[in-house]
Amino acid sequence: MRLLLLAASGLLPLLLVLAWGVNHLVEERRVAAERSVQELSRALAIAIDAELRSTLLLLENMGTFDELERGDVRGFYIDARRMTEQLGWRQISLADGEGRVLMRTSDPIGASSPVPVEPRSLALVVQTLKPVITGVIETPAFKSDAFNVRMPVIRSGKLVYVVTAMLPPTRS
Fold first, then answer.
1. What's the domain range around 6?
2. How far is the C-alpha of 171 from the C-alpha of 38, rounded, in Å?
3. Structural contact between residues 84 and 164, judged by C-beta atoms closer than 8 angstroms
4. What is the pLDDT of residues 110-156, one digit of tens each?
């Protein structure tokens, strides 16, 4: 019995050190995994931010198209439709300064409803004269959800148009 107690008393510190070592190893792995997730999240946020900035720049550039300067919605429709196909966007729409939709590239020219798909963000652009990026919204015309990036077109301090890109939340 004494021999058994002696052996147990020698093993107990060894088991305690082993338990501490395993706990330390598990904690170290948890911290490394947490750091890895943070770095991945940061990289994704940077990529998304860059993509949204480039979309805003493209929309801002579209606001300077000659067709819009002349008020030629049909000509703008042709250019916007080509861009939609090239960039893989769902659609580009154009609204007037009061928020009425003039055209959507997903509809034939002249067949678009004047009611916006997501009116709150369009009203916000009209009110603030600043770009707006919506959250993900349901799109009845398409089989999956999307989000809008809206850019005001301002001339002489007055809102003339709002150009909107409807984008899929995922890229293929």
1. 1-172
2. 22
3. no
4. 888 888 888 999 999 999 999 999 988 887 667 778 899 999 999 99
